[in-house]
Design goal:
Blueprint lengths: L4 E6 L3 H10 L5 E8 L14 E4 L12 E4 L7 H9 L3 E4 L7 H15 L2 E3 L8 H12 L3 E7 L2 E2 L1 H8 L4 E10 L1 H8 L8 H4 E9 L5 H9 L9 E6 L2 H7 L5 E11 L3 E11 L2 H21 L4 E3 L14 H8 L1
Parallel strand pairs: 1-2, 1-4, 2-3, 4-5, 5-6, 6-14, 10-11
Antiparallel strand pairs: 7-12, 8-9, 9-10, 12-13
Helix pairs in contact: 1-10, 2-3
Length: 328
C-alpha cells in the first residue's frame, strides 16, 4: 500500500482513546500525533511511539498530519476547537448539539475556507447516520412522519456537559426512551410528541467533597439543549460506585418513519443500532469520514461539510469498482 493517511487526535478522553484503538483496524491509516491540553509527557493510555503535542503547538504539525479527528465535547470544547483546528488542518468531528449545528457549521466553514482545508462536522451516529436515515426515509416517502428515539444508553455529549459543571468529578447520563411512545409510532398512530413525552434523562454524578449538590442538580435540570425539556433525575453517588457500576458505555436507538404511498398503503421504515460501546462505534464512524475528508482535500475541496455532502464511496478503503462487485 502507498503512503498512509496521517491522523491526529485532538482530545484524549473516551472518544479519543476509541479512535486510537480503532485506527488499528484501518490499514490505510496511521496515528501520527495526539494533541492535548494536558501535560505532553506521559499521557496515560497513549501508545508508545505516538507523539503527544500540546495544543498550542498544533500549528507546528500542519504539514505532518493529513486529518485531525476532534474528540472534545460539544458543550464547551468543539465550539472553539472546531474553528481553531480548521484553520490548521483538515478536520472531522462529532458535534452533537442539534439546535446549534447551523451556527457551528458556519463558524467552521469560515475557518476552513480561509485556510483551504476541508472540515466534516457532526458525523457520529446521531447526528450522523441517523441524520442520513431521516433524509433517505423522508425522501423516499414524503407523505409521512419521522421519529427518532435514543437509548437506553449512555450519551457521551450529555455526560460531557454534566462533567463541565463546577464541582463535578465525573458523570454518566442515560437516555431512556418512552416505550409507550415507540409502540404508538410502530402502530402507525403518528402521534405528536413533545421531547418530554419521548425520553427521560437519568444522571449519575460524582462530586467533589464540598460541592453544592442543590446547585449542581439545578444546573443540570435547567441546562438548555440538553436537559431543560426532559424529565431529568439526578443521583449523586461516589466516584468508586460510578466507576464500578457505570463504566460500560452502551447506547443505541431507532429512527422510525411512517410513510404512505398509493391509496393509503402504509410503508414503515425502521433503522436501529444496539451498541456495546458508544465511544468505540462513534470513533469508527469518525475514522471513516476522516478517510473521506482526506480524499476530498486531495481533490481540492475546501470548507465545511456534513454527512449529507459526502459520497458514500469515499468512506470505504475499497475501490469504487470493488464496491460495485461486493455491495451493489
Amino acid at each position: 500500500m502507498g503512503n498512509k493517511i496521517r491522523i491526529g487526535i485532538c482530545g484524549f478522553g473516551r472518544l479519543g482513546k476509541g479512535v486510537q484503538t480503532e485506527l488499528d483496524k484501518n490499514n490505510d491509516m496511521e496515528l501520527s500525533a495526539i494533541f492535548t491540553r494536558r501535560a505532553a509527557s506521559g499521557l496515560p493510555g497513549a501508545k508508545p511511539g505516538v507523539k503527544v503535542v500540546q495544543t498550542d503547538l498544533a500549528h507546528e504539525w500542519k504539514d505532518k498530519v493529513d486529518v485531525v479527528i476532534l474528540c472534545g465535547g460539544s458543550a464547551s470544547d468543539l465550539p472553539s476547537q472546531g474553528p481553531y483546528y480548521a484553520k490548521i488542518f483538515n478536520t472531522v468531528d462529532s458535534y452533537d448539539t442539534h439546535a446549534k449545528a447551523s451556527a457551528y457549521y458556519a463558524s467552521v466553514d469560515s475557518s476552513a475556507k480561509e485556510s483551504g482545508n476541508i472540515s466534516i462536522i457532526s458525523v457520529g451516529w446521531d447526528p450522523g447516520l441517523f441524520s442520513l436515515m431521516r433524509l433517505y426515509m423522508g425522501a423516499a416517502t414524503p407523505l409521512g412522519q419521522t421519529y427518532s428515539f435514543w437509548g437506553k444508553g449512555v450519551s457521551q455529549g450529555h455526560s460531557e456537559a454534566i462533567r463541565g459543571i463546577e464541582g463535578v468529578l465525573d458523570a454518566v447520563q442515560y437516555s431512556i426512551p418512552a416505550e409507550d411512545a415507540i409502540n404508538r409510532v410502530r402502530n402507525g398512530e403518528n402521534p405528536k410528541l413533545s421531547k418530554r413525552e419521548t425520553h427521560a434523562r437519568l444522571c449519575y454524578v460524582a462530586t467533589a467533597e464540598n460541592a453544592d449538590l442543590n446547585k449542581i442538580e439545578k444546573t443540570i435540570k435547567e441546562m438548555p439543549d440538553y436537559f431543560l425539556d426532559y424529565d431529568t433525575t439526578v443521583h449523586f453517588i461516589s466516584l468508586d460506585e460510578l466507576k464500578a457500576n457505570h463504566g460500560k458505555l452502551p447506547h443505541g436507538g431507532y429512527v422510525i418513519h411512517n410513510g404512505a404511498t398509493g391509496e393509503n398503503n402504509r410503508q414503515m421504515l425502521e433503522f436501529s443500532l444496539k451498541l456495546d460501546s458508544n465511544p468505540e462505534f462513534t470513533a469508527s464512524i469518525l475514522i471513516a469520514f476522516a478517510r473521506a475528508a482526506y480524499r476530498m482535500s486531495q481533490n481540492g475541496e475546501v470548507g465545511a461539510r456534513t454527512i449529507f455532502d459526502i459520497p458514500p464511496k469515499l468512506l470505504s478503503p475499497q475501490s469504487p469498482e470493488q464496491l460495485i462487485v461486493d455491495l451493489l
